Amino acid sequence: MRPLLAASLCLALLVPGVARAQGEAAAPLEDKPAVQLNEVERGLFFGAQAGAVLLFGPGAQQGSGLSMGQSLGVTVGVDIGELLSVGLLVLGSHIDTPPGFTAESGMRGDFSTLTIGALARVNLFGSPDSNGIKRLFVDVHAGGGLGLMGPKNIYPSSDIVVLGGTGLQYFTHLRHFSIGLDADFLFGVSNMGPGAMLSPYLRYTF
Questions:
Q1: 164 vs 186: CA distance, rounded Å
Q2: Which of 26, 82, 107, 123 could staple 137 via S-S, CB 3.0–4.6 A?
Q3: What is the pLDDT of residues 39-49, one digit of tens each?
């Protein structure tokens, strides 16, 4: 009799547990919410550029002709929405002067500049792709800063450099990357004089 009672008690204890386990197993699994990724990333960014510089007789006492050179630059900034971005600019250039070039100091020779300043960019309009995502933008931009010039025996003083122009920027399907091309007019107030610059660039947005 006792074994029968013990078996009945064990069965009574097991049945609710089995039923509860079956109910939990039968409960439907909820899908995890999908992670929504931005097609175009905006925010803090880092950019690098390289291009060509053309100066129209920088700081010359007599007819010097055109001076050509190369430029390299980096930008660290932030997007403010879709239309505006601001950043810090460091731009270096090396200028090859023509034989007839004479600087205001009376010296001759090639020279280099390092400009440290700021740049602001405003997107005028964007063109959407086949999926309706705006990837290609046309912008205007302007900036300026302090131009450190050398060698010092040719340009003993610094310069104030301002620049501005227009550009194209394309946000690639690698959503953190964009590429662009800037065409700028630049002017060195004290030494460099007027010039033009064409700069392709690559940008990474964090």
A1: 7
A2: 123
A3: 899 999 999 99
